[in-house]
Write a structure and sequence with these properties.
Strand content: 25-35%
Largest sheet: 6 strands, antiparallel
Number of domains: 3
InterPro entries: FliD, FliD_C
Shape: elongated
Structural class: alpha+beta
Pfam families: FliD_C
Domain Flagellar hook-associated protein 2 C-terminal: 29-235
Number of strands: 14
Radius of gyration: 34 Å
Helix content: 25-40%
Number of helices: 4
Protein name: Flagellar hook-associated protein 2 C-terminal domain-containing protein
Distance between the termini: 114 Å
Amino acid sequence: MAPEIQEGDLPSQDRLEVRLVCWVGGQVVGLELDGDGLLNLDTNVFDEAIAEDYMDVLAVIGADKTGSSTSNTVEFYGASSRYTTAGSYDVKVVVSGGAITSAQIKLSTESTYRTMTIDGSIITGDSTFNDDGAPVYPENSLQLSVDLSQDGTYGTDENPIVVRVKQGFTGVIEDAIDRMLKTTTGSIQIAQKYANETLDTLKDRIKAEEDRLDKKETRLIAKFARLEATLAMLQAQMAGLFGAI
């Protein structure tokens, strides 16, 4: 059974939707937490998944940046539950003279490898952060252990070592909430900023409309004052004319 995690869109601060999907023999097991906070589960198909691979289902639900590797020489060692991105990574390592001379990594969906930090038999993904305190690269804090007992090239462009970092349902929810609550880039902050900007724009439009109406009122008052003056003058002239007759 190959687990797959899908995260729904987070269009506003009052909506959180996360979906867990497990593929079992072409059938889908759906565990969904919708925007109303309701947890839905297809019990029949889920029971089939439990019967087929009990431990894998538990790992999918509760995994918190656990990992596996297709190599017995380069193995998963550890990852940050906060900073490492779950997914499949391609890895290439060269061991020469009982030491690691080269270590590179990238997401399987990427085209360019990045250099890993070497510390004895442990290699670590680039742990650089941006100005907002967010990881620059997905492999941030991902650590792999390398067996140095035999020299060789492990992983190539055509056949890389594949390291899979898993994240369960609870981890997806936690990460989604973290993203929502980030001080400068969180969806709640962005939505609040957008709402404030929209409110300021509306206030400016209201003020401009009030100024326009005030000016129009002033012009109309002046216009009617002139009309009244003209009417009074005409009435006076007519009264004088009739008086002369």
